[in-house]
Amino acid sequence: xxxxxxPFLLFAVLAGCARHNARSMTGASFHGLFITNYGRNDxxxxxxxxxxxxxxxxxxxxxxxxxxxxATNPANGQVSxxxxxxxxxxxxxxxxxxxxxxxxxxxxxTQIWAYDGNRFLWLLRMDxxxxxxxxxxxxxxCKVPANVLNRISADAKNQIMSQSNGS
Length: 167
Description:
The chain is an alpha+beta fold. Strands 1, 3, 4, 5 and 6 form a five-stranded antiparallel sheet that branches. A five-stranded antiparallel sheet has the order 2-7-8-9-10, with no helix packed on it. The longest helix is centred in the first third of the chain and has 16 residues, at 2-17. The chain has helices at residues 2-17, 146-149, 154-164, and strands at 22-24, 33-35, 39-42, 47-51, 58-72, 79-92, 103-108, 111-115, 121-126, 132-135. The radius of gyration is 21 Å and the shape is elongated.
């Protein structure tokens, strides 16, 4: 009886220590999509970008599939495990409202640039674990892609360039 118990316990410990395996709903990465039309725009990488025409609101949804998802409740330490689970995160920015000349650039499945058509450039970064970071409208942790800079107003571009030069 002890012989079969040891391999079982070893398997249980190794399985419990394994990190979750996250991937987009389709399992594919996506690169370089400019969005300039209102409505819902889906990418191959599990992102959905929706720009509402009536109010100009931008919402980005990211769906991920997990073979095994382990979550710990910080309040009581209870651990939950889900198999074949999907999680959808919703991102928006209250300061961003689509105006004439707006666009969204999905650089890849973890980085999205959104320009409101006036002065507000927003960068949303997401990692594979569901964490996110929001930057803008003038300072960014990385270089603004040339194809984004070329599409924004001169005023917005000057404000970004003056911040990046330390002014």
